[in-house]
Structure to design on (113 residues):
């Protein structure tokens, strides 16, 4: 199993949620976060003083999928999240040792379905 964490632009959320739904991905966590990368934020003037905002709003999506699904899901997220501009986001992939459905105590792949 693989855990996919995608950091994307907020305006891309609905497109990617639709995509994951069409791929029958059952579990998805969505978090509103603030972060910075190459984009570095922006500057504003507040009461005549320059204020630098280093963090920009982003969305973090997390899902756990079967190993054989991971690459195609990553590719499709990249297609939907792409604008060609700095700040399109990043995807991190990690191995998941096990998954447990608390209610039934199912483990592994059956806990994902």
């Amino acid at each position: 199993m693989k855990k996919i964490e995608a950091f994307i632009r907020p305006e891309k959320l609905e497109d990617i949620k639709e995509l994951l739904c069409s791929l029958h991905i059952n579990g998805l966590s969505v978090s509103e976060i603030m972060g910075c990368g190459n984009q570095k934020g922006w500057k504003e003037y507040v009461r005549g003083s320059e204020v630098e905002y280093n963090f920009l709003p982003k969305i973090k999506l997390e899902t756990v999928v079967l190993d054989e699904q991971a690459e195609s899901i990553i590719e499709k997220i990249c297609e939907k999240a792409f604008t060609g501009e700095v700040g399109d986001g990043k995807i991190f992939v990690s191995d998941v040792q096990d998954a447990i459905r608390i209610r039934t105590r199912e483990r592994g792949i059956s806990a994902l379905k």
